[in-house]
Structure formats: C-alpha cells, structure tokens
Amino acid sequence: MPPALPASEHRISTGNAGLNSILGGGFDADRMYLYEGRPGTGKTTLALEFLLEGAGKSEKTLYISLSETQRELELVARRHGWNVSDIEIFELIPPETTLDPSQELTVLHPAEVELAETTKLILDRVSALNPTRVVIDSLSELRLLAQSSLRYRRQVLALKHFFAIRSCTVVVLDDMTSHDNDLQLHSICHGVVLLEQLAIEYGAERRRLRVVKMRGIPFRGGYHDMAIKKGGIEVYPRLIAAEHHASFVGEFVGSGNTELDDLLGGGLERGTNALLIGAAGVGKSSLAVSYAIAAAQRGEKSAFFAFDEGRGTIEARAQSLGLPLQAALDAGLLMFQQIDPAELSPGEFAKIVRERVQKDGVRVVIIDSLNGYLNAMPDGRFLILQMHELLTFLGQQGVLTLLIMAQHGLVGPMDTPLDISYLSDAVLMLRYFEHGGVVRRALSVVKKRSGDHEHTIREFKLSRHGLSLGPPLREFSGVLSGTPTYVGSGEPLLDGESERTA
C-alpha cells in the first residue's frame, strides 16, 4: 500500500459540494486561502459553510469578524436554517450598548486602535482556542489600519506564518474596496477564489465563481455559475463533456410517424441532435412533442424544457392533435419543466439537464426554444460554447436532443437570431407556403450527418389525427430563400381538411 500522506497534505472539504468538485476534492489542509469579491457576492455565506463543515466533524472553529456583529452573523445563519452555536464568533467591533460612555468596552473597534493591538487580539484568541479552521472577515479593516502597502503585507505574512505552525486552515475575506485591489494577497495565499455579482439589464442578478489560483491542486478553470439560496450557496461547476462518457447502441429513435422516419432515412439516431427551424406557429413544438410521445410508448423517459410556452399551452396543443400527452405525464415518462430565462443561469440549466439524464434516465431531451435559452445568457457570445458542451455531453450519453429555433418573421425572407446549425447533426426546415389562397406547411430535411435522407420537400399537416405528410412536391421553388412558391397542380397537395394551429 502507498504510504499515508502527512497530515499537512490531506485534503479537507470546503463545505460546499460545488466548490469541492471544481477543486477535485477540496483544500489542502493547514494553508491560507482568500475569498475575494465585492460586497454582496456571497463571501460570508461561503465562509460560514467552511466553518460549519468543520463544526459538523467536532473540530474547533473560529470566526473573527472585523465588520459584522455576532447578531448579524447569527441572523444570516438562521435564515439559511443553520445552527452556528458550535462556531466561536469573535467580533472586534463593539455592540450597540458600548455607545454609553459609562459602560466599559470589552471588545475592540478597529478604527480606534493601532494595527499591532488588533493583530495581538487575534493571535491571543487563536492561541486560547487552538482551532483547526479560522475565518477572518475581512482584511479590508486591517488594510485601513496599516495605512501603507508594505506594513499591510508584513502583517498578513505574520498572520500566515503564525497559522502555519498551528495545524490550522484559514480563509480570509477581502471585499476588494481598495483602489489597487492588493494583488499582493494573491502571492501570499495558497489559493484564491473570486466571487462576482453581475447585474443584467432585466431579471435577477447573476453570480459566478472562479478559482484564480490554487497551488499544487489541479482545478476546473473558468467561470462557474452560482446562486445563493436558502441553505447556502449552490455552485454549478462548468460542464466539461469530456468527463462524461457512457456506452449505448446507436439505433434509430422513432418519431411515431412512419412517413417522417422514412423522410429522415430511417429516423434520428441516439446520441445525435436535430435542429427544428422555422417561423413561429409552423409546427416545430408539435413535431418535437410527437417524439416524446413515441418515447413514452416505448417505455422511455423524455424531458421537455419550455422557455417560451407554459405547460397548459403544450397540453392543449397535444390534445388538439390527438397526442396522449397527459398519459405520458401521469406515468412519469415525460418530465415537463418550465424555464424562466430571467431567473435561471445557464450553469444551473446545464445541471438540471445533467440530472435528468444521469439520475432520472431520460433518453430524449427537447429544448423549446433556443431563442429563450439565448435570453438566459448574460453575454450571448458564449451561447454557442455552452451549447456545444451540453450537446456533446448529451450525445455521449446516447440521448436524442431536439432543439427548436424560431426564425424572425412569418412570411418572406427569414432571419435566424443565431447560427447554430453547424453544431446540429440534423436540420429540419419547416416553412409556410401559399397555394390557391390557402396557407400550407412544408417540411424538408436539409442536413443529416449520420446517414442519407430524402432530399424532397413535402407538405405536412397537423390535425386531430396528428402529423401527416404528403407526397414529394416536385414543382417547388424558393423554399430555402424563405419565399416558397408552388407552381405545380393541386393534385399532390393534401386535402382541405381543417388544420389545427401548432
């Protein structure tokens, strides 16, 4: 057996599952770490999770507060449902009662004493308690007392050396209120975690986390979305598709419509994705729902993520098309989830999709629509990168993914808000066309990587009998330009039975 690691090389939990995943296990023990971020980014909450993890293992823990009172910290903990009675809280600011000059001061106010006295109080309390986990909140107060960068750096180094010989892991917080941001802290600390809060033009604020530095620990780089919820901070590690592989049989996935499967050269394969593109109301969502219903009839699970429409709208449409959607929902074979793009970050959405696939066994995923997903991005430049990772992950899990994208406009030349077709294994184009004063619908497969397919254009109809396809329309022009014109006779067209709006 390999020799046991020295105590100083053991990894300890940060108290946050997401951060542990990013770090591949947690912190190195007996080191000093920095949580930095503007006020309101979640530093205090993340630090309390670190101490609660230790307290839960009967370790001695100490929270040294230079900016918040014990009552404020206890209120934050209580609203998260935490009990911090096992955490020693040492506040270096006086309670409100000390405003009475007749009462003796029992604690220290940083603005009224020298830096050396403040540091001595910290060291004395640590020496008396001998904790294994310490949080200092925040270094901004020490920086103000130091009054110079050189003196401040020396004091922080002195604290680091003091803790280094005491078998103690320390997390220091910094609110980045100094003008020079004091990058010297990065060189002193063993690791640095940056927390950010982003204000977007509409919707809830977005929070994210990035590991700036971690000596000797391989970590998952880049930004990771996070959210502060009741019970603590949820961190959503950035999805890396290469870390997730599963074996599966690359068979065809039926749509429940033989004519549509024939048009696709046998159907869509597992582990691939298909983009359904067309104008609003042309039938993209109805076509996707038919795949979910067909999966339920095979006993497979599907997940429908709706960014644009509510569950009631989807159910009403399915009922009008004669699709047994409600039976699939009641049987738990179709999981419908309404997504609010103003409230949900892309990282949290990726986590939900991953859980549906890996925990619930979902085999068909429908995202309706990419337009709504685009609105969930604080910066649209990264939509394609995140979607690429998500689609690669789903493909490696053997999942069939259907992506719906609405083009701008109903008739005439159409504009696509985002070109994601090169990521798609198959592209199905749905179009309106007019013949004899009647608005009709046309369907064509313009791309399919995994095999041959029919290259014709067919009329399709959505009625109470579901989806039906007509014969190939040979005398067609202008479909790809967005202004399709049928110049042939009416014989190949479907009959005039009333259609349902899709």
Describe this structure in words.
Helices cover 28% and strands 26% of the residues. The model is unreliable at 1-8, 94-99, 102-106, 108-112 and 497-502 (pLDDT under 50). The longest helix is centred in the first third of the chain and has 16 residues, at 149-164. It has 502 residues and is α/β, with parallel strands linked by helices. It folds into two domains: 7-238, P-loop containing nucleotide triphosphate hydrolases (Rossmann fold, 3-Layer(aba) Sandwich); 243-465, P-loop containing nucleotide triphosphate hydrolases (Rossmann fold), CATH 3.40.50.300. The strands form five sheets. A nine-stranded mixed beta sheet has the order 5-4-6-7-3-8-9-10-11, sandwiched between helices. A nine-stranded mixed beta sheet has the order 16-15-17-18-14-19-20-21-22, sandwiched between helices. A two-stranded antiparallel sheet has the order 1-2.
User: How much is the average pLDDT?
Assistant: 85
Shape estimate:
elongated
Specify Rg, calculated over alpha carbons. Answer: 30 Å
Highest CATH level, the class of the largest domain: Alpha Beta
CATH topology of the largest domain: Rossmann fold
Strand order of the largest sheet: 5-4-6-7-3-8-9-10-11
Number of domains: 2
Spans of at least 5 consecutive residues whose pLDDT stays below 50 are 1-8, 94-99, 102-106, 108-112, 497-502
**Residues in helices, as a percent range:** 25-40%
Number of strands: 24
Query: What's the architecture of the largest domain, going by CATH?
Result: 3-Layer(aba) Sandwich
Biggest β-sheet description: 9 strands, mixed
Distance between the termini: 65 Å
Q: CATH homologous superfamily of the largest domain, by name?
A: P-loop containing nucleotide triphosphate hydrolases
- Helix/sheet category: alpha/beta
